[in-house]
Amino acid sequence: HWFPDLDDLYNKVKYNPNIVGILIINPDNPTGMVYPLETLQRIVEIAKEFKLFLLADEIYLNITYNGAKAVALAEIIGDVPGISMKGISKELPWPGSRCGWMEYYNRDKDADFARFCRAIDDAKMIEVCATKLPQMAIPRIMSDPRYQPYRQLVNENIGKRSKKIAQMLSGIPQITFNETYGAFYNTIIFRKGVLQEGQTMAIKNQRIKALIEGFTSENMPLDKRFVYYLLGAKGVCVVPISSFCSDLQGFRVTLLEENEEILEKTFTAIKEGILEYIKSPTPALPEGKGF
After folding, report:
1. Which end of the chain has fewer CB atoms at under 10 Å, N or C?
2. Shared-domain flag, residues 199 and 220
3. Which among 234, 232, 175, 239 is positioned nearest to 30, based on CA atoms?
4. pLDDT (mean) for 25-51
């Protein structure tokens, strides 16, 4: 379920004294996971034991579905120093409007953390970014009695789309993925050894074909190569998982398309692209270059 390996996290912190904080992204981008309460509590315990601060990206905090509910850092942090980053860019469908904020917790508990927070404040003060309109609007929008039912309906629809996409892609044995519970992404992973150099998809437009072949002639992660071919051949844009500093090979998709016909068309194209790509012949290895 993409949950963090807490034993690995503990050892990384224990044996790397230069680490000063732990970053939490909950709900998670790109996997769509929502961390259980027990996982978050253990992370807080680790931070407390090693005198670290916590930094939580909670931009998707109110976007949960399929029976999940995200626990805010503020609910469990206790006396550990921490920062929560929040905003409206993912939650409100307001193109062109941006407003984000940080919540400091236990700023007075640690002098170094207090200086860090002050440095952030000072840096923000010199940036010119007027957000008066959303600042004035946010309290009225979120306190309106219609807002929570609206948010719940939107979340439920994202959850339905997540199940629809899972149903469409579940018959491909060369990939694996989990059900999602928050944010609006899913991560599709190719099983080990599926992606190979030289795999292709047919691209009808010769100009686009030349561009894609030029882009992919360089030494690049195999999932990024697949993503380029999917874009060139099917016109569908996804994000390679290697771009998230992962050793896994795969891609991230979004669950935002509300038009059912377009959604089905898009993921049918992705499914067809996967099957065509992995079944395409790969160039024979030069003699003596086998594994």
Report:
1. C
2. yes
3. 239
4. 98
